């Protein structure tokens, strides 16, 4: 990004750097989750950190299933705003979401990495909280993303929950109001059909989110 032609504005270079960090969080942390524990155990005297974390992991195991633990300071980092500016990603409000109800929001297409829904739903980059005050949002992801150490913590800070009926239903309990769960309904199957000029949606046999919506009201 800093080796780009001299006529590329500094702001664009900063946006590009932020995208690299964004991609590292989404992709690189999977490798980090394996390499860091292995390094601590076999190459340092800090091996004790790994079993200590394992105890914490056991204690904290159900947190992703119970709404995770989003951190607003992390969701509102300027990093995400710069990434949204890079693409760009914008959020357009077409309806009210009163905080007296709970919601399932279906997103499509999946694309390669679902950057649009991640930036709009798991971060504050596009102004969700201003447009929809009182709505507490969670975004569904593959279970494995919330099992790997380090990665799971970052993903929980962004408000991700596992793609399971238990996790989704937990956030839509009738006694809790103002909750919204975002689901990229096409999943990884739809991601494989991503292209630059065509959107193939995988919806015909994806009715699970409709059933949960009916069950939870």
TrEMBL record:
This is diacylglycerol O-acyltransferase. Its EC number is 2.3.1.20. It comes from Steinernema glaseri. It is a multi-pass membrane protein. The lineage of its organism: Eukaryota, Metazoa, Ecdysozoa, Nematoda, Chromadorea. It is an enzyme of class 2 (transferase). GO terms for biological process: glycerol metabolic process; triglyceride biosynthetic process. GO terms for cellular component: endoplasmic reticulum membrane. InterPro entries: DAGAT (IPR007130).
